[in-house]
Design brief:
Elements: H1 49-69, H2 77-100
Helix pairs in contact: 1-2
């Protein structure tokens, strides 16, 4: 018999924890960069006014233009024009609104 304590010989030896190096004996330092219970990341999401206005334009104009182009009676230029005009109008309004709020859609802490 050997002097070693009971060891299982059937599997590989357990690897050290990935969060600590094998040579480190001191405990990990707690993360103090943010208060506990808060998710990491920026406090306020900022959206560029041009990007937000363009996104709103495409979200409004594309469905109207597709409807006007794929009707069973054939393409209707009036519906397509209305879709583009309404999309531009709403996109410009959204861009100006974002510019006025400095790109912040929500003010204050997030839920």
């Amino acid at each position: 018999m050997s002097d070693e304590p009971n060891r299982r010989e059937t599997g590989p030896s357990p690897s050290p924890s990935p969060s600590r190096s094998p040579s480190s004996e001191e405990p990990r330092r707690p993360d103090v960069s943010r208060p506990p219970g808060r998710p990491p990341g920026p406090e306020d999401i900022r959206i560029g006014p041009f990007a937000g206005g363009f996104a709103v334009f495409t979200a409004v104009a594309i469905p109207i233009v597709v409807f006007g182009y794929t009707r069973a009676a054939g393409p209707d230029d009036a519906i397509i024009g209305i879709g583009v005009i309404v999309g531009l109008l709403v996109g410009v309004i959204a861009g100006l609104w974002l510019a006025r709020r400095d790109g912040r859609v929500w003010r204050g802490p997030q839920l």
